[in-house]
Amino acid sequence: MLRILAIESSCDECAAAVVEDGRRVIANVVATQAEIHAKYGGVVPEVASRRHLETMIPVVEEALAQAGGWDAIDAIGATFGPGLAGSLLVGLNAGKALAFARGLPFIGINHLEGHIYANWIQAIADEPLPEFPALALVVSGGHTDLILMEDHGRYRRLGRTRDDAAGEAFDKVARLLELGYPGGPVIERLAQGVTPGVTLPRAWLTGTHDFSFSGLKTAVLHLTRDPARPSAAAIAAAFQDSVVDVLSAKTARAAGEFNVKMVMLAGGVASNTALREAIVARSPVPVRCPPPRYCTDNAVMIAACAYFHLARGERSDLSLDVQPNLRFAE
User: Fold this and answer.
1) Which CATH superfamily is domain 3-121+294-311 in?
2) What does the pLDDT read at residue 123?
3) Distant-in-sequence, close-in-space partners of 164: CB < 8 Å, separation ≥ 6
4) Which of 45, 177, 259, 271 could be bridged to 295 by S-S, CB 3.0 to 4.6 A?
5) Whether residue 42 has pLDDT greater than 90
6) Model confidence at 318: pLDDT above 80
7) 3.30.1330.10, 3.30.420.40, 3.90.580.10, 3.40.190.10: which CATH number matches 134-289?
8) What's the rounded Cα separation, in Å, for the pair 64 and 97?
9) For 312-321, what is the mean pLDDT?
C-alpha cells in the first residue's frame, strides 16, 4: 500500500489529502474561501494567497492527523499549475519543503490532470477502474476541454474553449443577474424545475470539438437590458440549458467518433446535475461522474494523480517552480 499526502492551492481552496494506492481516501481537508471572495463577486488573487499562508499548516496537520501521522506517508504531491501564481506558490513550496524535510519523493501535478483523476477515487466498494481509451470532459472555472485519454500519461486534446470557459460563463451570468458568487451552484438552484420560455443561442462551431460561450454570455447581457425581460429564474434556466446542450452533444459526438469505452466528467461544473443527466442520456458509452465533493478543487484528486506518476517511476525535482499558465494535453 502506498499513501500519498497531496496539497492543492491553485485558486481559493486550500486543501490537503491522503490517498492510498490512488483510490482509497484516508484523509480529506478543504479550507474554502468562498465566503471571503463572495463580496467581491470573484476571487481576488492577493487575498487568496494571503489566506493560503494562514491556513496551509493547519490544513496539512489535520490531514496528517486523520491519516495517523507521518509514518503513514510514502510520498508528497502538490499542484504547480495552472492557477493563480501567488496561491500556487504557497502550496507548491509547502509540498517541496515537507518532502525535503521528511526525505520523501515529491511529485508536481498539473491541476487539470488532477481533475481527471477524481474518476479513480473509489466512491463505492468494488467499483471498477475506468477503462481506456476514455474521453474526459474537463469543465471548470478556467477551462473547458475534451481530452482523449489512451492510457495513464497518454493524452490528446480534441477540443477546447475558444473564449470563456463554462464555469467562467456561469460566474459572469450570475453577476449579470445579481445572484452572487460562485455562479454555478446558485444558477443551478434557481433554474431547477423552471421552464425557460426563451431560447438562448448555442455556438456549435461545426466541424470542430471546440466550445465558445462568449456569445451566449453577451446574449444574456442583452436580455437583462430588455424592459420586457423574463424573470431571473427563466434566464438562468435558459442559460443552463444552452451550456448543457452544447457540452453534452459535443461530448457524445466525440465519444462515438473516437470509439472510447468510457466518458469521464471532471472539474467544478461537472457537479451540475443537469449536465450529468444530459451526458448520461446522450453518451453511447458508460459515463463516470465523480462525487460532487471531488469535482470542485480538492487535494484528493491531486494525490490520486500523483500515485500513478509515482507508479511509473516519475519524480519531480525540488527546483520545480509554479507555472500559472501551464498547458495540458497539447
Assistant:
1) ATPase, nucleotide binding domain (3.30.420.40)
2) 80
3) 172, 212, 213, 214, 217
4) 271
5) no
6) yes
7) 3.30.420.40
8) 15
9) 97
